[in-house]
Amino acid sequence: MPVVGDRAFPTFGQADGIVSLLFTGGYSALTWVPFVIAGMAVARCDLVATAVRIRLALTGYGRATGIARRVQ
């Protein structure tokens, strides 16, 4: 197991390494992959078109207010 400073890091060959990478780590794939996919989807849109930009802004606003209402 590689050691950096006083921390020991599991390698990818061990089950803990894969679990940490996908589910429990600080930058786990389960947390960040949906944001990467959403960013790729937005990047594929025609962002020059005003209608697309307005639709993206309204969708973002609607989702943000919907989440804020659930949290309260």
Structure explained in plain terms:
With 72 residues, the chain is mostly helical. The chain contains three helices and two strands; from the N terminus they run ββααα. The chain has a two-stranded antiparallel sheet. A hairpin with a 2-residue loop joins strand 1 and strand 2. The radius of gyration is 19 Å and the shape is elongated. The mean pLDDT is 82.
Topology record:
Elements: E1 3-4, E2 7-8, H1 15-24, H2 29-44, H3 50-71
Task: Describe the structure using short key phrases.
two-stranded antiparallel ribbon, elongated, single chain, mainly alpha, 72 residues, 6% strand
* Tally of alpha and pi helices: 3
Q: Describe the strand arrangement of the main beta sheet, using strand numbers.
A: 1-2
Let me know the largest β-sheet: 2 strands, antiparallel
Q: Secondary-structure element order, as H and E?
A: EEHHH
- Mean of pLDDT: 82
Class inferred from helices and paired strands: mainly alpha
Spatial separation of the terminal alpha carbons = 44 Å
The Cα radius of gyration reads 19 Å
Strand content: 5-15%
Any low-confidence stretches, pLDDT <50, length ≥5?
Answer: none
Helix content, binned percent = 55-70%
Shape: elongated
- The count of DSSP E runs of length 2 or more, i.e. the number of strands, is 2
